[in-house]
Amino acid sequence: MSKSAPTPGKPAKIERIVAALARQGLAVSRTGSVWTLARPERADTPRAEVLLPDGFPLSSKAAVQLERFASATHPAGGTVVAARATPDFHAGARVPVGAVVATSPDMLVPEAIGTDINCGMRLHVVDLDYERFLAAKPKLVASLRGDLLLGTRDLPMDYRSLRALYRAGAPAWLEQVRATPLGRMALADCEQIETELERCYELGSFEGSTTWFRGGEREIIRDPCLGTPGGGNHFVEIQVVDAILDGRMAHAWGVRQGQLAFMVHSGSRAVGVAVGEHWRERARDLWPTGLAHPSSGVFAVHGEAAKAYLEAMSTAANYGAVNRLLLAELVRLRLREHYGDLAAPLVWDGPHNLVSRERGLNVHRKGATPARAGEPVLIPGSMGQPSYLMVGLGSEHWLASASHGAGRALTRHRARHLDERDAGLAGVECIALHAERLREEAPAAYKDIAPVIDVQVEAGIVGPVARMRPLLTFKA
Fold this sequence. Notes:
- This protein is an alpha+beta fold and 476 residues long.
- Helix content is 31%, strand content 24%.
- The chain has helices at 13-23, 60-70, 130-135, 137-149, 159-168, 170-179, 190-196, 247-252, 269-285, 304-339, 412-415, 435-440, 449-458; strands at residues 27-31, 34-38, 48-51, 80-90, 97-103, 107-108, 120-126, 157-158, 220-221, 235-244, 260-266, 301-302, 346-351, 353-358, 361-366, 368-370, 376-379, 387-392, 401-403, 430-432, 462-475.
- Strand 1 (27-31) and strand 2 form a beta hairpin.
- The active site is at residue 404.
- Its cofactor is Mn(2+).
């Protein structure tokens, strides 16, 4: 008997998962790579669909979490219109990662975004050959270790630029920085940064607010979070473009085989935490008095409260966008310092934790990347697997959304106990301050990226453009 064959008399694992979900009232069916989740007694709740490659397990915990969000409503009106999940679908603390939930325009679910607001990816390419990169690599690593991990990044800000950041995002912030350039930003090419703003998914669908600004009015402020990657799976990675998969699109975006690239993954840091935690409690407090709390435990907001949440979310989104921009600028400035005048243009910057207004609906993406027709999509692998530049195909069925990675195969707790031989760290160069970070983020802690890419191509969500292989990763 092969090792993959089920033991006689014992149900296969997936059969046990389906049976366990059925006991919780959740009906599960599968057609090809698509899993459908529904509660038969709730005919008014949209069926949730999950796209998974063959051999990828359906997480029962994540399935229950997704169905809870699919059933969210508000007594004053508002419903979930559609619920989908991308192939990196796995359980989160309260919200499954890889979830995409579209609601009617009068309702929002703050917890569907959580605290890592406007976490996203940013990709630059660099015309620098590999041998030349290696020649000055030790100096580059030492400089970036200081900037990214040890707090030597030298990013003082005039308080007016920070207030502009909160209120109106990167364009207003950059205007103030140009008027008063300080620290490393005095060396930056602000004209190039301004032209690159056009290559960002969005600079905020909604106005932000200075309500969340805590810097006071000191003339010069050193924000402890701006220009930092943060914990979890956030990173800054230097890569090489090792394959072009769509020559026409790659040429249009300035991507060539053999180029170096650098990818930034980070979000809104402490500002997102403050906004997310406040609105998690606020949504509960605003629930109409005298009405039973939703059995799902998911609290939506409606009307003026929804508008207030959008303002708060957009404030954190503004912060997250500038944080990624600054991280990339620190890398670009160090590359120029060690290798000469390199353009290192931006290919794309896109979020994967945000609400966007699309086709008249509020599309909540939690660990899912917008994949609008013709626009770039960034799907990272682990630090031991390649990352991909894709082009969105605008699939309406999948709410124009793709995965934001391969998804975790092991929790961080389990990954810490991996045997060194099984962690997949051989040949991986990762700069981190603590050894446990390497185990938590080891390649073996993540699913294989290749089938995740393939199943989304087959589903008509994205098309492949280029593949990048990791050379050097920084983890805070």
